[in-house]
Amino acid sequence: MDNDGGDYVRSNPVWPAVPHYYGDTIRQLFIVNAGLILIGAPFYADSLRAELPFEILGALILAGLAALVNPHKKSFLFANAVAAGVGLLFYETWALSQYETSTWTQFVLRELIAIIFLFAFYFSVKTVRAFVLHQIGKSERVGEFDENARDEWEEKQAPPKEK
Description:
The protein is an all-alpha fold and 163 residues long.
């Protein structure tokens, strides 16, 4: 093992990637958003006393979904997509409906949370699509969409016999 800065490349990554699975990205986005919701609450909440229990509950739900997501459970993948969509809808509506009466800090924090939910929604739906199409864990093939490329099953078939 050469650690002197040569051509050494780690062959076994710390977290090996699963093709077409973005649960790790979703997990990171949910945890960042949960932290941002809790840390930013005093700065963007209209009435902290009334809103804080819902913000804490939302952060707990995001952290729980982030912890439970895995490439084997379709239900958690769907739950992540729903949670990201609902969070996006809620925070974007809140940001735009209160735009005229809120401060710039409130508006920017609400928009930032909504944008993070947008990315989480994108990667959640992308993972759900791959799960439905049975593509999670499968690598792409060269020429997969070329019209002239033959499928694997076509190559293995014997030519039809003439009578």
